[in-house]
């Protein structure tokens, strides 16, 4: 994470100024709290730490209230979840950072209460932390071409386009992991009651490719049970594959897949090679891998619905999700010079182009498309995650133009929230109108 060292300095400043036993800075990631920086005199502080909000105890309460003080903690029953055993804490105080994007908290064993002066000091430190957090947020897009963020582009280039076969996905996965500087990596997918190695990188993992890996009493089992990421560093070395104890690594990172039953694990001999900072990259890699697996399993079909059947299917889907937080991705593709291709290169070439585009629609969207007037293809997908649908629309805009063909293809996509009622006929008419216009479209690649 950007400015991690600066966050650590703020935490240590808070500890020294407020004479705290422990100071901790947490970031809110979805429904979880992630420990970013801490300074503690306790030998029972849990780090790294990822907490569900419902398990956050006094942290969740503080986040909800915005600012929270619990003096005379010996009389209260508040749970402090960042200790793995009870500490005799006398007072606790916390404030929100950046309107709830984070939480800065302190506790003490020296006194039974924090004063108004202490509260103002912590509030000022939280403002400084928030400014640094916003600075990191604004700088991040500018770092795409530097350091580890270069991997984002590498991942998108290798994994965003639909693989034609399993070997292609395996090769792309191995290349991405190699670029990350990781010695060993595996993707485990659950089949029946066991976990099979679906993708691998490194000599140890490749030996297990397509075979089942026991996970009992291993970090893999912990991640599968808790659904939380696992980060471990040990200078003495720990095994990536338990029964191969002689092959140890100083750094492990294992994260659960989001939708498919499985996990991604990586091992490095560099103690700092797999730190918490890589969790954002690991989350993106998980998303891309899941999308690639789904596209790989999807059976391409040249089936095309009639405009009337497509209209009814879309209408039914909208009715089922109307009023929810779901979002519609509607994608249109126009072959502008299909008549010229038909006349100059023949019917077979024209039909081949249409078929290939139909198969691409099926891979990306997972449902049959519709062919309008012989030269416009349309498809849709409904999901609750706007970012995923936006990435899907961009990927189609980038990958649909057919390499080596003479086709002039215009691709448009649009996201529409379904919280308000919108008719399928209106949506389709607007898409056709935009495809037939000569103007630039929102969502065109």
What is the typical, i.e. mean, pLDDT? 79
Strand percentage, roughly?
25-35%
Uncertain runs are 143-147, 439-445
Count of DSSP strands: 16
- Class inferred from helices and paired strands: alpha+beta
Strand order of the biggest β-sheet: 3-2-1-6-5-4
What is the count of DSSP helices, taking H or I runs of 4+ residues? 13
SSE order, one letter for each helix or strand: HEEEHEEEHHHEEHHEEEHEHEHHEEHEH
List the keywords.
disordered C terminus, 39% helix, 445 residues, alpha+beta, six-stranded antiparallel sheet
Topology (elements, then pairings):
Layout: H1 4-18, E1 22-29, E2 32-40, E3 50-52, H2 58-65, E4 67-71, E5 91-97, E6 102-108, H3 116-139, H4 150-159, H5 166-179, E7 184-191, E8 194-201, H6 203-207, H7 219-226, E9 230-239, E10 248-256, E11 262-268, H8 279-297, E12 304-305, H9 307-321, E13 327-335, H10 338-345, H11 347-365, E14 369-372, E15 376-383, H12 386-399, E16 409-417, H13 424-436
Parallel strand pairs: 12-14
Antiparallel strand pairs: 1-2, 1-6, 2-3, 4-5, 5-6, 7-8, 7-11, 9-10, 10-11, 13-15, 13-16, 14-15
Helix pairs in contact: 1-3, 4-5, 4-8, 10-11
Plain-language structure description:
The protein has helices at residues 4-18, 58-65, 116-139, 150-159, 166-179, 203-207, 219-226, 279-297, 307-321, 338-345, 347-365, 386-399, 424-436; strands spanning 22-29, 32-40, 50-52, 67-71, 91-97, 102-108, 184-191, 194-201, 230-239, 248-256, 262-268, 304-305, 327-335, 369-372, 376-383, 409-417. The longest helix has 24 residues, at 116-139. The protein has a 6-stranded antiparallel sheet, sandwiched between helices. The chain has a 5-stranded antiparallel sheet with strand order 8-7-11-10-9, with helices on both faces. It has a 5-stranded mixed sheet with strand order 12-14-15-13-16, with helices on both faces. With 445 residues, it is an alpha+beta fold. It has 13 helices and 16 strands. Helices cover 39% and strands 25% of the residues. The model is unreliable at 143-147 and 439-445 (pLDDT under 50). It is globular, with a radius of gyration of 26 Å.
């Amino acid at each position: 994470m950007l400015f991690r060292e600066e966050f650590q300095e703020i935490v240590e400043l808070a500890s020294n100024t407020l004479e705290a036993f422990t100071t901790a800075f947490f970031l809110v990631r979805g429904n979880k709290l992630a420990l970013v920086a801490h300074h503690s005199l306790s030998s029972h502080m849990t780090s790294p730490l990822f907490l569900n909000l419902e398990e956050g105890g006094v942290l969740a309460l503080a986040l909800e209230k915005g600012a929270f003080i619990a003096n005379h903690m010996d009389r209260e029953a508040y749970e402090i979840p960042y200790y793995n055993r009870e500490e005799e804490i006398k007072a606790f105080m916390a404030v929100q950072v950046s309107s709830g994007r984070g939480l800065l908290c302190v506790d003490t064993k020296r006194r039974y209460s924090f004063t108004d002066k202490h509260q103002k000091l912590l509030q000022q430190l939280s403002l400084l932390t928030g400014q640094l957090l916003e600075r990191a947020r604004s700088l991040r897009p500018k770092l795409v071409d530097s350091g580890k963020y270069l991997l984002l582009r590498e991942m998108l280039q290798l994994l965003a386009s639909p693989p034609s076969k399993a070997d292609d996905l395996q090769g792309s996965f191995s290349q991405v992991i190699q670029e990350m500087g990781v010695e060993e990596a595996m993707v485990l997918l659950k089949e029946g009651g066991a976990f099979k190695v679906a993708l691998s990188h490194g000599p140890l993992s490749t030996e297990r490719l397509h075979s089942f890996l026991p996970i009992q009493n291993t970090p893999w089992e912990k991640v599968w049970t808790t659904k939380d990421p696992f980060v471990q560093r040990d200078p003495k070395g720990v095994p990536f594959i338990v029964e191969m104890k002689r092959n140890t690594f100083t750094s492990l990172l294992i994260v659960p897949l989001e939708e498919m039953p499985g996990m991604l694990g990586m091992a490095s001999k560099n103690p700092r090679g797999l730190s918490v900072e890589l969790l954002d990259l690991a989350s993106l890699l998980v998303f891309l891998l899941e999308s690639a697996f789904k596209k790989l399993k999807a059976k391409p079909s040249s089936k095309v619905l009639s405009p009337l059947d497509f209209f009814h299917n879309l209408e039914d889907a909208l009715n089922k999700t109307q009023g929810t937080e779901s979002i519609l991705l509607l994608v249109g593709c126009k072959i502008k010079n299909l008549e010229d291709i038909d006349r100059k290169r023949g019917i077979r070439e024209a039909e081949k182009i249409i078929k290939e585009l139909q198969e691409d629609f099926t891979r990306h969207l997972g449902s049959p498309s519709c062919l309008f007037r012989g030269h416009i293809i349309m498809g849709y997908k409904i999901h609750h995650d706007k970012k995923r649908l936006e990435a899907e629309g961009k990927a189609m805009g980038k990958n649909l133009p057919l390499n080596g063909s003479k086709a002039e293809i215009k691709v448009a996509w649009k996201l529409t929230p379904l919280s308000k009622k919108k008719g399928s006929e209106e949506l389709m008419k607007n898409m056709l109108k935009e495809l037939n216009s000569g103007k630039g479209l929102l969502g065109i690649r």
